[in-house]
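Case study.
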Amino acid sequence: GESVGLHLPTLSVQEGDNSIINCAYSNSASDYFIWYKQESGKGPQFIIDIRSNMDKRQGQRVTVLLNKTVKHLSLQIAATQPGDSAVYFCAETPNNAGNMLTFGGGTRLMVKP
Amino acid sequence: EAQVTQNPRYLITVTGKKLTVTCSQNMNHEYMSWYRQDPGLGLRQIYYSMNVEVTDKGDVPEGYKVSRKEKRNFPLILESPSPNQTSLYFCASSRRGVSSYNSPLHFGNGTRLTVT
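After joint prediction, the assembly is written out as follows.
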């Protein structure tokens, strides 16, 4: 498949454990945040999003936490499965940047059976 | 099936030979965008379009052109490709734009371009 990046931070977890992927952002004007998952050979796929007026949002097996004080975003995956192995990107868009989306560098999640 | 389709999937060309990468979406989305993905640099936005005949520069527009004559199509044009444009390119679309809640980006599967 296509390589999405060299020297990505890697998180290795045991199947069934919970995973936490972190993302720091620098723009205090960012008010909308999204997590994407990218599997080998594919484009990024939307997982979950959150607005800056929230600090937590839950989806199916995933939770996004937002700490605006320290400009930190995290993605929690419950009961991690082999199919969760991928590169995960956070993305942000400031409320004054029109429709431009800025992506973080990505974290590779590896799930050990 | 709702999807964003890019063609070709792989392309090898030589410096200076004009090329076009096509992108089409079947979801009636207003917003379309092009990104390039490079090791260590992540995904960077090239151009985006809020609607037909409306295009705007992203972070790295130099050396690229786009057009949005129809809602469903958003081709990426490299008039005179150079080796530094060797990259993995993604087209994406969303219903209303990336700043809109519940309007996530849908990505194509990428075009691997090599310019020698």
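Observations recorded in class. DSSP finds no helices and ten strands in chain A. The CA atoms of residues 89 and 106 of chain A lie 4 Å apart. We will return to this complex in the next lecture.
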